[in-house]
Amino acid sequence: MRVRAAVLREMGLPAPYAASRPLQITELDLAPPGRGEMVVRVRAAGLCHSDLSVIDGSRPRVMPMALGHEAAGEVVALGPGAAGFSPGDRVVLAFVPACGGCGPCRDGRAALCEPGAAANAAGTLLSGDRRWSEGAATPSAVHHHLGVSAFAEHVVVSTASAVRVPDDLPFEIAALFGCAVLTGVGAVVRTARVRPGDAVALFGLGGVGLAALLGAVLAGAARIVAVDVVAAKLELARELGATQTILAGAGHDPVAAVREATRGGADHAIETVGSAAVLAQAYAATRRGGTTTTVGLPHPEQMLSIPAVGLVTEERTLRGSYLGSCVPTRDIPRFIALHAAGRLPVERLLTHTLALEDVNAGFDRLRAGEAVRQAVMM
User: I want to staple 321 with a disulfide (CB 3.0 to 4.6 A). Which of 60, 111, 163, 187 is the partner?
Assistant: First the structure.
């Protein structure tokens, strides 16, 4: 099958991306699905900072790569042994294919699936194979992004990357459950386990950060303090339930402001920026006995410096959260049910839709902080 896809061949090209065009819209050859795989027609794909961090080189990946990892679509065809799905099913794709058999999977920690992590690092599907290629005479492989490669008209994915969803859920909203909602809401309710009455500080208000805000409201947090450098995002945060907002950046001390707003420090701080410096601020903004949860993905060379003694004398906790510590097959249906009940207004996160040809301009918008979540509509 010949498929149009957005391919990244070189990381670190300069912005604006509408001019440098790091993502090239090109036709690739997509091989038929192997065992346990299926073909999905992508109908909507979200633009995420995790994609942007590959484009700008802060999250190194193997090249060339068909980019994108947050998507919803419909099943077109099944490979041998692809159980649990039928053509026509609507699915959300999750960016960690969980094998179900390794130690973390058996322990209920699908986000840490060991074969899934190895496949994602290598740019393959869970099977270890690649279904993308280009060039007629001597075809060369193109890598998969996190087992999904969402910026394409059709993709081959492992069935372990897919979750069936209701037919009445719009594709552009469904896509958000595969990353933004799993990661943000999951960080609050699964990793941090925020309780009713807690004080929560959110550092960074992109799609994941605002999804975490929705999760804090859902969890019954009494005080929700939202921190960002973009004033427009603070306004949206207030509309979504933040009890106080803080503009960070030059001349502003968000740590002192959070501690004042939470009467001595937050019970929980959630960091979504992907910056070691912001993570240190989030940690400093918690109270004695507080917990800091980070979902951001800084460059591998960034190092975190915090007062080590406080981990003991103040019983502070610092936790990482990948995929929101969620099990996609369990949590995506639950979060969708909460959305249907009006308790997770995920649609408020979607600020733009665009065509595949405009994906580079979309990443300019994301980089400038002018969008929360954008969806490429196929």
Answer: 187
